[in-house]
Each structure stands twice: as structure tokens, then as C-alpha cells.
């Protein structure tokens, strides 16, 4: 039998976990002191925090420790990128039952590290405590490198709406896991380890994006926040959504199983957790490779899809 | 009956809570976007995170929402101060059951705000999710204002050891609550709402403190981290510990109830969570008002009390 975190104790766990964290030049003081010290050369720091709770945001039977580490890091690092900033560091709080295997926390650490490496960040500190509910609290920090932060309230009528990254694959992957299907593998992987396009956040900011966010609750719901904050309407065209043969195949498998909506567009519009970036740009902007124009900003309010107000997409954590 | 957070939903709760957060000049972008933007004029940011779990770190029957907000903020803000930095902002993650009363989250917000105000900080962002276990994840940020961070590894033989803030009151308060006693009120208050001496962290850094930390697990255990990191021994004298008539009275009450150690010094040496600051200074340093010299740094390792190695104090979260 392997050891548990109860066997090695709080300080043993801290030593074991922090030994796995490589440091970077952005981390001036890493784990082991009262607090970390992280470079913030811009004179401002971007900071965001999210909690992942077992049973709500992941299931250990569907996602390994490494998957959970990737996902916990990704959803916070994507929030940093969505402000137009480059991620620098992560702080990680772990609340866990004493019988949790150290092999699982090792894998969690490796997943956090690997995802950080994709974004140019490093784990700079954290906390471990006992809890009956396995919970991971991640805070990500980032550097604007002199750029203005891209908020949600800057979209203007005439702007184009564009996305970068996959849409709907994570939601389809979750539906496949619920239905007991073992493929398409890319959709299962997208649910376990989203792949946000980190570098595109700063790039969109440099190109003059007027508003931006990462798609975490669903494209329609999240763009609804942009519409509300900016005092505009967002008009999406399903025909413009990026073609995705992997998602098409997943939807075909789900249809055969009698599980889930029949149209890929429904996953793309309502599915969250891929952590794609959605942004608005002035009409004259030449969109770079990787970005797809999916609609326009108009006078009005709310989000329309092919001219009609959509059925409310996404989901609320309490409602 | 009052409303619950399940009644108002995730976005209702976010709107309700963030409406209670006053902003400060350090918060450039506050709650409501993908991430906060916080001033970090120094070009470095101090960052620390802690989790508080119901049943482990607080009990709702002993501490109100406002108390828990004060405590959650205080223990993180104290970590920032212990690096020699001035706190600027807090990020707060709340994982809670849907039947939690909005009156409780309102009180939590008010406690967070009030404690931030004592330290010059403000709540800049956060997250709310559903969980069966009430959990609060707090991240605090701070500004070094050009000072070098004060670490744990700089204590040198010949340095004096000093503390600022109360010692042992929180532990005595917890023992009183466990014993069902309703006083002394100052000790119950110290357990519910510790009062770290925030401004003394930057002041100690300016005075040339060679090592510093906040006392969270117990004075002997925490100074053991300084000894280990610095490669020195810390020699404490119980006769030098600051006199505290309030603690003396609490210990007298506890002795009458047959609960807890009989000597105030034991609470001062082993009790954590007052979040006093402990620091080492070059011998020639004139200690300011509020700091009490309690020992010296010598060659060797570990912590001694009146010349003897102490029974292991403090506690571990898993062991």
C-alpha cells in the first residue's frame, strides 16, 4: 500500500509537494516562507482565484490527480490571459482528507507544474489543510507588460466578435463520461485538461481587443456578461462557428447513446470549461491565425443567435 | 425566514457580496471581471494563501460570520506583514452549502472588509462555489515599498529575538470555549478575531530585522522554522515573555474548570493563531515600543526554553 498524506503529516506533505515545483525567474521567493514574492515589473499585478470542489468540478473516478492539477491551473491561468496579461505564478491551497494518497497529491503537483509551464508560470506558494471535502483553491498572478487590461465593458457597436480555442469539447466530454462512452478521446481529454490559448490573450490585447473574457460558463452566457457590461448586443451566427470534426464525432456518438443535444452548435454555444478566449475587436482589425469571427456587436442588449434570443445557456453554481 | 445563497444563486450572491466591498486606490480593477488588477508599485508583489475549513479552523456555533471574515483576512494579512510588506488586496474564495444564510455571507463580507481596513487593504476579487463543507480560501497581496523582504533564514548568532502582539490569548480562548466558559472576553475575542500588529512588519523591516514570521502554529514551533532555515539556535527565556494579566486571568479560570495547562507561559509558547510577529534583530537595534525582547540567537540548532529543549509544541494539520 502507498502512503497517505495523513502518514506523512502537514509539514511532510508541504516538503514533498514543494520539492516538485520548479521555480522561474518570476518567482523571487518561492514556497517555504510566510509569503511568496513574485516579480510584477509592470507595477500592477493581475490576480484571480477559483475553487475546485470534488463532486462539483471534478470526480476522482473520471479525472486523475494530474488531470485535476492541469484543470485547476488552466482555469485560473486562462482568466489572467483573458485580461491581456502573461501568467507569472500560482498559489495553491489544498484541503484534503487524511486518507488521500500521496501518489494523488504527487500527480496533482505534476499537473499543476506542467500546466504552469505551458503558460510560463510557476507554483510560488500554497497551503495544505485537513477537510472532509477534497478542495483545491488556486490563485493565479500575471503581468500586463505595459498593456492596458482588457475588460468586459469596452465592446462597441460595429466591433467584430471572435473566439480562439476549442468550444464545446469539454461539455461533450463530460456528457460522454456520464454516458459511459470512452471516446472520442480528444473530447474526454478536453474535459479533463482544457487547453486555453494563453499566448493569445496578450496578443489580442496588443491588437486592440475592446473586450475579452475566457469561456468558462458557456459562450452565450459569458458573452452576455460582455453585452451587459458594455451596454451593447452581441449577435452570433452559428454558421460562423469554427468547424470541429472531433466535436461532430462526439455528438454523433452521444446521439447513438441517446444522450445530449443533437447539434454540435448547442455544445459550442452553451458548453463551458474549454476556456477558449472570446473577444471583441474594432471592425478594421485583421484577426490573426487561430481566431475565428463568429458575430458582430450591435446596439441593443443581450445575445442573439442567428437573430433570435437564445434559450438561456450555461449554468449557475447555486440556482 | 431569511434567504439562503441557494435562493439568490451564484450571480446574485456575487453581486450581493461585492456590493459590500469598498475599493481603495490600490485596487485598479476590482470584482466583476476575469481577474482583478492591483497596484504593485514596487515591481514585486508579496502573495500568500490560506484555507479555513469549518470544523478545523472555526465553528459556526463559536464564531459568527463576521468573526470568520476577520480571522480569515487576518491570518493572511499577517503573513504579508511578516515579510515586511504592506497589505494591498485580498481575493476570497467561498465554497458553501446552498442552505447557508445570506445573513451569514453578509456578515462574512463585513468582517473581511473591516479587517482589510485595519491593514489598509481591500477585497479585490473572488469566487463562490457549492460545497458540502464550508470553506474559505483567502489570498492576500502586499507591497514591499522598496524594502527587502524579511525571510526566515537571516537570523545570526548574537541577534536578539523579539515579539510584538499578544501570545497565547487565542489558544486560551479556544480552551475556554471548549470548556463552556464565557470569559475572559478578551481571550474569546482573540480566538475569534486575532489582532495582528500589521504596521509593525514594515517597521521591523525598516529597523533591519534579520528574520521574521507571524506566530500561527505556536511560538516555539514557528521559531523552530527560523532556527532551521537560518542554521542557528533560538534561546528563549520565559521570564522575558510579556506580562499579560488577561491571559493570567484566563488560565486561572481554566484551572478552576480543570481544563488546560496551569501556566500562562505554556499558552504563550505553544499556542498559535494570535498572529503576533516574531523577529530577530541585530543586537545593537533599539527595539521600538510594542516589541518585547524574549531571547537571543546562538550557534547550534533548535529552540530552547530557559536552557532546555522544549516538549514539542504546536500542532500539525494531518499528523
Automatic annotation (TrEMBL), chains A, B:
Substrate binds at residues 57, 273, 315. Residues 156-305 form the PurM-like C-terminal domain. Mg(2+) 2 binds at residues 50, 79. It catalyses: thiamine phosphate + ATP = thiamine diphosphate + ADP. GO terms for molecular function: thiamine-phosphate kinase activity. InterPro entries: PurM-like_C_dom (IPR010918), PurM-like_C_sf (IPR036676), PurM-like_N (IPR016188), PurM-like_N_sf (IPR036921), ThiL-like (IPR006283). Mg(2+) 1 binds at residues 49-50, 127. Mg(2+) 3 binds at residues 34, 79, 214. Keywords: ATP-binding, Kinase, Magnesium, Metal-binding, Nucleotide-binding, Thiamine biosynthesis, Transferase. SUPFAM superfamilies: PurM C-terminal domain-like, PurM N-terminal domain-like. Its EC number is 2.7.4.16. Residues 32-142 form the PurM-like N-terminal domain. Reaction mechanism of ThiL seems to utilize a direct, inline transfer of the gamma-phosphate of ATP to TMP rather than a phosphorylated enzyme intermediate. Belongs to the thiamine-monophosphate kinase family. This is Thiamine-monophosphate kinase. It comes from Marinactinospora rubrisoli.
Amino acid at each position: 500500500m502507498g502512503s497517505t498524506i495523513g502518514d506523512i503529516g502537514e509539514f511532510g506533505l508541504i516538503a514533498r509537494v514543494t520539492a516538485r515545483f520548479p521555480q522561474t525567474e518570476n518567482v523571487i521567493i518561492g514556497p517555504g516562507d510566510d509569503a511568496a514574492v513574485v516579480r510584477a515589473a509592470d507595477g500592477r499585478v493581475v490576480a484571480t482565484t477559483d475553487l475546485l470542489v470534488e463532486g462539483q468540478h471534478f470526480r476522482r473516478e473520471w479525472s486523475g490527480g494530474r488531470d485535476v492539477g492541469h484543470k485547476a491551473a488552466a482555469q485560473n491561468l486562462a482568466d489572467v490571459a483573458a485580461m491581456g496579461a502573461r501568467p507569472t505564478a500560482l498559489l495553491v491551497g489544498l484541503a484534503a482528507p487524511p486518507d488521500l494518497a500521496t501518489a494523488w497529491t504527487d500527480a496533482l503537483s505534476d499537473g499543476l507544474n506542467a500546466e504552469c509551464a505551458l503558460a510560463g508560470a510557476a507554483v510560488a506558494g500554497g497551503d495544505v489543510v485537513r477537510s472532509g471535502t477534497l478542495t483545491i483553491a488556486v490563485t493565479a498572478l500575471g503581468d500586463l507588460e505595459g498593456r492596458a487590461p482588457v475588460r468586459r465593458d469596452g465592446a462597441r457597436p460595429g466591433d467584430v466578435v471572435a473566439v480562439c480555442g476549442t468550444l464545446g469539447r469539454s461539455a461533450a466530454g463530460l456528457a460522454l463520461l456520464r454516458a459511459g462512452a470512452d471516446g472520442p478521446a480528444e473530447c474526454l481529454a478536453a474535459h479533463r485538461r482544457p487547453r486555453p490559448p494563453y499566448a493569445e490573450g496578450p496578443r489580442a490585447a496588443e491588437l486592440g481587443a475592446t473586450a475579452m473574457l475566457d469561456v468558462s460558463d458557456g459562450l452565450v452566457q459569458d458573452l452576455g456578461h460582455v453585452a451587459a457590461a458594455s451596454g451593447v448586443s452581441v449577435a452570433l451566427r452559428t454558421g460562423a462557428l469554427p468547424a470541429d470534426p472531433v466535436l461532430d464525432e462526439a455528438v454523433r456518438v452521444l446521439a447513438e447513446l441517446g444522450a445530449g443535444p443533437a447539434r454540435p452548435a448547442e455544445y459550442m454555444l452553451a458548453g463551458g470549461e474549454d476556456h477558449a478566449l472570446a473577444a471583441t475587436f474594432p471592425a478594421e482589425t485583421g484577426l490573426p491565425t487561430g481566431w475565428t469571427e463568429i458575430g458582430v456587436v450591435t446596439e441593443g442588449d443581450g445575445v442573439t443567435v442567428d437573430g433570435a434570443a437564445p434559450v438561456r445557456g450555461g449554468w449557475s453554481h447555486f440556482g
